[in-house]
Amino acid sequence: MSDAIEKAALRLREAGETHRPCPPIRDLIAPDDVTSAYAVQEVNTKFWLGRGRRLVGRKIGLTAAAVQKQLGVDQPDFGMLFADMLANEERAIPLAELMQPKVEAEIAIVLKRPLTRERHSIGDIADATDYVCAAIEIVGSRIANWDIKLADTIADNASSSHFVLGAGKHKLSEVDLVGCAMTMTRRGETVSTGSGSACMGNPLNASAWLADTMVKCGRPLQAGDVIMTGALGPMAAVEPGDVVEARIEGLGQARVTFGR
């Protein structure tokens, strides 16, 4: 493990622990060095697992073609979902727990079987799915002013913070993951619209990519894991007191409130 990777991991970890955003890590690893960025993420994943945090799934980022083009990549990225990142719809999240928060409406997949093959098809993902639901991801950046390049966001656990799962649980056969329309409101005002097709054409495509990648990384997805499949529309910033609702056709809604 190189000294630069250890220093980058420590910088991000200290920023999260102190809630003081740090400079980008581009002085330590190159802005497009994906391998080193995931090595930084893995250092902090092992650190937090060693401190008792528990993995409950993964998030997929960079699923929109426009965002991939902006960062000069041709595939998404991933981050870890820990149990303490799952927020309750009934509890307002204090802004003090967050760092530069923004929200995205997504479809979440919950697995009933592990995904351990080297290559997974959409059918494999469908067979392993217990249910799907509407969800909101609260993204956040430990890096000041969201001044991020590809390596920065990957190293920073894919700019993750919290996630909320809607109460409605639906079988895949009950919903149209591709054609479903999404509307996200903040204090009743529409701030984002989109559809399931915005997520790599189909959220199951993103999930198959993730399953294959997790096997290569030695952390295959397990039964009960949550997959946050990626944004269905543009993200939106939030402020104290905001109430955000994401409604996805056929899947119902997810809701999150931010404390004052």
Describe the protein's architecture and organization:
It is a single chain. With about 260 residues, the protein is α+β, with helices and mostly antiparallel strands. The protein has a single domain, classed as Fumarylacetoacetate hydrolase, domain 2, CATH 3.90.850. The protein has helices spanning about 5-20, 35-50, 65-70, 120-130, 150-155, 205-215; strands at about 55-60, 75-80, 100-110, 130-140, 160-165, 180-185, 190-195, 225-230, 235, 245-250, 250-255. Strands 1, 2, 3, 4, 5, 8 and 9 form a seven-stranded mixed β-sheet that branches. It has a four-stranded antiparallel β-sheet with strand order 7-6-10-11, with no helix packed on it. The longest helix is centred in the N-terminal third of the chain and has 17 residues, at about 35-50.
